[in-house]
Amino acid sequence: MLRFYNFVQYKYCIGTDPVYSFLLSRILIFISRVSVLPLLFCSTMLILITALLVRGCRPGKIVQMTEAEVRGLCIKSREIFLSQPILLELEAPLKICGDIHGQYTDLLRLFEYGGFPPEANYLFLGDYVDRGKQSLETICLLLAYKIKYPENFFLLRGNHECASINRIYGFYDECKRRFNIKLWKTFTDCFNCLPIAAIIDEKIFCCHGGPLMSLTQVCLLCDLLWSDPDKDVQGWGENDRGVSFTFGADVVSKFLNRHDLDLICRAHQVVEDGYEFFAKRQLVTLFSAPNYCGEFDNAGGMMSVDESLMCSFQILKPSEKKAKYQYGGVNTGRPVTPPRTAQAPKKR
């Protein structure tokens, strides 16, 4: 039976263990001196070690990766995604995270708080790239963990894991600036194979946007990635995004009853406290990028589901005030989706 634990944990800026960083740096030095490197460490492990070495460094520090390493991550993870179903059937316990949007430092803070894999199982709900300054670091770390722990670490597709969207909102420009357009196309091939929904213990339905009329309509990818709840709507309504629809509390109830589910867990929208309930706690929105784009005072949320389906929330406060994200030194000027509880973004 699904339950919610009322205690909410808050976490602020987390310090880095200097001993941990020192040991990792010693490992890298050792690896660099060993001629039989392929026999000892695969490129995935190298990227994991390199990516985690920036813990405790100034926010925005670039992780050094070669094009061959990144391409290898895309190819190998794509094979894993293709070998697993498009609708995942998962078991608790696990932790669920919402949008990350290239906020790599905050992703590391989430792992420090929730436990680095394989200490905990994870399900991410999409939108790993765009908006933030470090989309490449973010998606490469997530893909590396998927390769390393394919049965314990899961990634769903968000609307920004789509070429027509991330071509505009930053990821394309980041790939082009740091590598080349060909690598961006390799990422696109990988994103096209991501699963789009998950069901936890036959009771919690997880996706990026919102539900469908039937689970047999999984081919209707647009609604799963784009739809939004609206307390002022009965049934389905128009979406201000210009894509898909909004849906009311009645749609949530009908969907859950039809499929004998207890909860819809989705992402896709900024929410002020990192999580927000809808439809009498039948739906929860998670957003895991605190201080989103440097424009909002929102917290980041992560939901923990234990073996008994008890759900609790861990809240990540913004570590510091950040400037608006820019790509290549030029602000995109494109608006972000504001929190439902805010009339206008709070400027930083």
Outline the fold blueprint.
Layout (H helix, E strand, L loop, with lengths): L2 E9 L6 H15 L4 H4 L2 H10 L14 H17 L3 E4 L3 E4 L6 H11 L7 E3 L10 H14 L4 E3 L7 H4 L4 H8 L2 H11 L5 E4 L3 E4 L13 H6 L1 E2 L6 E3 L6 E3 L1 H10 L4 E4 L8 E4 L4 E4 L13 E6 L4 E7 L32
Enzyme class: hydrolase
Protein name: Serine/threonine-protein phosphatase
GO molecular function: metal ion binding; protein serine/threonine phosphatase activity
Tags for this model:
Serine/threonine-protein phosphatase; Metallo-depent_PP-like; six-stranded mixed beta sheet; disordered C terminus; 348 residues
What does this structure look like?
By secondary structure, the chain is α/β, with parallel strands linked by helices. The chain has helices spanning 18-32, 37-40, 43-52, 67-83, 104-114, 135-148, 163-166, 171-178, 181-191, 221-226, 249-258; strands spanning 3-11, 87-90, 94-97, 122-124, 153-155, 197-200, 204-207, 228-229, 236-238, 245-247, 263-266, 275-278, 283-286, 300-305, 310-316. The protein has a six-stranded mixed beta sheet, with helices on one face. It has a six-stranded mixed beta sheet with strand order 2-6-7-11-13-12. Helix 8 crosses helix 9 (181-191). The protein is globular. It holds the Pfam family Metallophos. It catalyses: O-phospho-L-threonyl-[protein] + H2O = L-threonyl-[protein] + phosphate; O-phospho-L-seryl-[protein] + H2O = L-seryl-[protein] + phosphate. Its EC number is 3.1.3.16.
